[in-house]
Structure formats: structure tokens, C-alpha cells
Specification:
Elements: E1 3-4, H1 7-17, H2 21-29, E2 49-50, E3 56-57, H3 60-71, H4 73-80, H5 104-119, H6 122-137, E4 150-151, E5 154-155, H7 158-174, H8 178-192, H9 203-206, H10 208-222, H11 226-237, H12 252-255, H13 270-276, H14 279-287, H15 290-307, E6 332-333, H16 334-351, H17 355-367, E7 382-383, H18 416-419, H19 423-429, E8 433-434
Parallel strand pairs: 1-3
Antiparallel strand pairs: 2-8, 4-5, 6-7
Bound molecules: zinc ion.
Zinc ion (ZN) binds next to helix 16 and helix 18.
């Protein structure tokens, strides 16, 4: 199915369909459709279902913008980024050995691949396949895959969480059944990892919702009951984003510097909040507990209560939110912007609440464009609403962290440089959604 869309069409769809009791009632009485993979029982019924990548063909300004992204940073990064060099790259080696083996390659491939499929661009698809095939080839006998990295002395599952997004999109676009088997073997491996060694580090604990998202994605395609056990295990072992149960990542003397409300969130890194807050809502699809959905709404509110005095949908948190640094001179990281959009798009499908569609556009139309140059050839690490200067100086401690982080630069910085790409392609993919009926 192909659809040409405009923003106004998206708004009409969202306003006309979601949230009304009549609509929910109608949904309950309509048999499940056989075209799109919504939630299989016993998961909570889907409110909306994302269409397979490539189903939606962009038009108008959005197509122009995606083409700028292709001709600019996202499309050309493979030629200039140190982490995407093919020589001795750990993500291209069958045994996972080599350089550049952490988050950067899958971060880039996540946006690049989806951009390639949406634009149906043969050269980009060919490039994406080089990296996808290498990921598949790297799978070991036990089901694990990719370069082996450590987080606080234990296996770091975080880079593979991003790689799963890449192969899922590839499957949706190509129907390549190898992806289903590959993911199934990997998740079997994750089931064998003892709880005390699973998701116990920093990034992987706080971002474990991404792992859970992919497990639910696969369950909806295979119905393998063991995946439900893995879903429970991920929720149990990852860091809790439910503000009633949080355990602070920062403890001891360091912790005493902060006010009482600081203990409401497990961590105050801007990206971790924008990304992590969706986990309880994702888990609610297994738990059927409305409190879990509520927990995600609460984290959204907590960060905005203390750091949300800025326009454009985000919060003035710099790299790490800090008490006393909360006015519109504080900034947001580009990774935070695109992860907020991704979270909102998840939240829209899980809750059916139009708020999340509206908020996605608030961020997409106001904050994200300010973080990149109009030609999409460079970007900033940090962007603030009251930002009169765009220089290469270090503005720490007024701005966190130390470095030339306000400057437009194709190399800024190793995370945003690679992770920015998902923002607009994911936006395009979520403009039309299916309902269970
Ligand atoms: Zn970043």
C-alpha cells in the first residue's frame, strides 16, 4: 500500500479516529485484520499499529527534507565518520573483533536504513545491506551476535538493542525470513543469561525498554511464548522508570548535593529520560496494568515540572539536568530530541492518546530543525531556545558538559552524529497507522 501524505492528512486521521469512546467500542467489535501485525494475545490489544517500513511514500516538504538528509549528513556520514570506516570495523567482522564496536554503527544504520527504504534508494539500500549482512553473519553458535562490549564488567546488551531496530526494519521492507530466525536465536540466548548478569550496567539498564520493544515485535510475528518470559525478565532486570520504585544510579556523597525530588527518576541524563520513560508503557502491554502506562506519563511530567520552562516540547537539561540550571539558556541534546519523538510515536500506538502525536510535532517542527543546518550537512550536540551564540568555545559549567558543544559541525558528537538519522524517517513512518480492525 502506498500513501502520499501531508501534515494536514495526519492531523485529520488522528483527530478523527482516536480517543473517542465510540471509536474504542467500534474497535472492540471489529475482527482483527490480517494485514498488519498488531499485538497477539495475551498482550494488551493494540490501539494503533505501525505499518511496515516502506508502506508510506513521503511527498511535499517532507520528501524534500528527507532528500536533504540523504544528500547531507545521514547519507554521507559513511564517507566521513571515523566509526563507519570499513577497514577493521568490528561490526563488519564475523568474530566481532576490530575497532568501533559500540553504539555508533547501529545508531547510524537505524536512521540510514529506514531513510533508504522510505526513499526506495538503490544505492543506499545496497550500502545498508553490507552492514545488515555482517550483523547476521556475526551470530554465534549460542545466538549472541555483534562485537562483544562490556559495561561495568558485564556484557553490554545496549549496542545490540539498536542493531535489532535495524534488522526489524530490514525485515519489514524485504520480508527476509532470516531476520525472524536470527532474532529468535538471540532472544533464546538472552533467556540463558542469569538475572544478575542481565541489563545490570548503566546505558543498558536505563534503555532496556528498547530490548523489550523488539521482543514484543518478534512475539507478534511468531507467537513464541518464551518471548513473553523474556519480556518479563527484561522488565525485572532493567532499571525501573516507575517513579515509585526508582533506584538512583547516582548514590553516596554525590547524591547528597541534590534536592528531595531528585530521587523520583533513576537518572537525569537528557537522552536516558527521553528514551527510558517509554519502558513502563511498553511493559504495560504484558502486564495489563494501567499504573504502568501512568508511570510513563509521570516521568514525562516530572522532567517538565523541573526543567520544562522552554518552548518547543523538550526540556532545558543540557547533557545532564542539574538543579539551578533550568531556564531557557539550558539546552537539549540532539539524541534527546529524536528519542523523544521515537518514544512519543510508541506512546501513541500504545495509548491511542492524541497528545503524543501533537507533542511529536511540537518537537519535530520547533526543536529538531534548530539542531541541524537547513541543508542537513551538520548538526549541534546541544541546542537551547535562548542561544544567541553559536561558537566553538567551552561553555561549561553554564552549559553541561564541557566541550565545543554549541557549534554546528558534521562531527558533533559521536552519539548525535550517528543517532540523529532516525528522527524524520520514523516521523514519516508514523503518519499513517492501522487499527486492530
Ligand atoms: Zn547525542
Amino acid at each position: 500500500m502506498k500513501r502520499i501524505f501531508t501534515r494536514s492528512i495526519m492531523l485529520i486521521c488522528a483527530i478523527a479516529l482516536s480517543g473517542s469512546p465510540a471509536f474504542s467500542q467500534a474497535q472492540a467489535n471489529v475482527p482483527a485484520n490480517s494485514f498488519y501485525s498488531g499485538n497477539k494475545k495475551p498482550l494488551e490489544a493494540s490501539k494503533y499499529i505501525r505499518l511496515p517500513v516502506g508502506s508510506i511514500e513521503p511527498g511535499g516538504w517532507l520528501k524534500v527534507y528527507l532528500e536533504k538528509q540523504r544528500d547531507g549528513l545521514t547519507g554521507q556520514l559513511v564517507n566521513i565518520s571515523a566509526w563507519l570506516q570499513k577497514t577493521d570495523n568490528a561490526w563488519l567482522s564475523a568474530d566481532g573483533k576490530g575497532k568501533w564496536g559500540w553504539e555508533e554503527v547501529p545508531y547510524w544504520l537505524k536512521g540510514y536504513g529506514d531513510l533508504a527504504y522510505i526513499l526506495n534508494d538503490p544505492a543506499m539500500i545496497k550500502e545498508a545491506k553490507i552492514w545488515i549482512e555482517a550483523i547476521l553473519v556475526s551470530q554465534k553458535e549460542n545466538g549472541d551476535f555483534g562485537p562483544h562490549s562490556l559495561d561495568r564488567g558485564k556484557q553490554d546488551f545496549w549496542p545490540n538493542m539498536i542493531a535489532l531496530y535495524c534488522v526489524q526494519s530490514y525485515y519489514e521492507y524485504t520480508g527476509d525470513k532470516r531476520i525472524i530466525d536470527f532474532m529468535g536465536r538471540y532472544f533464546k540466548y538472552q533467556l540463558t543469561v542469569p538475572d544478575e548478569n542481565f541489563l545490570k550496567g548503566y546505558w543498558q539498564g536505563l534503555r532496556s525498554g528498547d530490548n523489550l520493544y523488539s521482543v514484543i515485535w518478534l512475539y507478534n510475528r511468531t507467537g513464541d511464548q518464551a518471548l513473553l518470559d523474556l519480556g518479563e525478565k527484561i522488565h525485572r532486570c532493567g532499571t525501573s522508570w516507575n517513579s515509585r520504585y526508582t533506584e538512583l544510579v547516582v548514590t553516596g556523597e554525590e547524591r547528597k548535593k541534590y534536592p528531595e525530588w531528585w530521587s523520583l527518576l533513576p537518572d537525569w541524563h537528557n537522552v536516558n529520560i527521553a528514551q527510558g520513560f517509554r519502558e513502563p508503557a511498553i511493559y504495560s502491554q504484558l502486564s495489563h496494568n494501567p499504573d504502568d502506562v501512568q508511570a510513563s506519563y509521570e516521568v514525562f511530567q516530572i522532567i517538565r515540572e523541573h526543567f520544562g520552562q522552554v518552548p518547543g516540547g523538550m526540556y532545558g537539561a543540557d547533557e545532564m539536568a542539574r538543579p539551578g540550571y533550568a531556564d531557557p539558556r539550558q539546552a537539549i541534546e540532539t539524541c534527546g530530541i529524536v528519542e523523544q519523538m521515537n518514544s512519543n510515536e510508541n506512546m501513541l500506538c500504545i495509548t491511542g492518546d492524541n497528545f503524543w502525536a501533537d507533542h511529536t510535532e511540537n518537537v519535530a517542527f520547533n526543536t529538531y530543525p534548530a539542531a541541524t543546518m537547513p541543508d542537513f550537512k551538520s548538526l549541534r550536540y546541544l541546542t537551547a531556545p535562548n542561544m544567541v551564540l553559536n561558537d566553538d568555545q567551552n561553555h561549561s559549567p553554564g552549559i553541561d558538559n564541557a566541550g565545543p558543544f554549541l557549534m554546528m559541525n558534521p562531527f558533533s558528537s559521536r552519539c548525535c552524529q550517528h543517532n540523529h538519522g532516525q528522527g524524520w524517517p520514523y516521523y514519516a513512518e508514523n503518519l499513517w497507522l492501522a487499527t486492530p480492525g
